[in-house]
Amino acid sequence: MSRALGILLGFAADRVFGDPRRFHPVAGFGQVASRLESRWYDDSRATGTAYATVLVGTATAAGVIAERLSRNRPIVHTVVTAAATWTVLGARSLEREAEAMAGFLEEKDIPAARDRLSHLCARDATDLEADELARATVESIAENTSDACVAPLLWGGVLGVPGLLGYRAANTLDAMVGYKSAKYLNFGWTSARLDDVLNLLPARLCAVLTGLSAGRVRQAVTVWRRDAPRHPSPNAGPVEAAFAGALDLTLGGTNSYGSYQEDRGTLGDGPTPTVADVRRTAALARRVGLAAAAVAALLAVRRKGARWI
Question: In this structure, how many other beta carbons lie within 10 angstroms of the beta carbon of residue 183?
Answer without folding.
Answer: 12
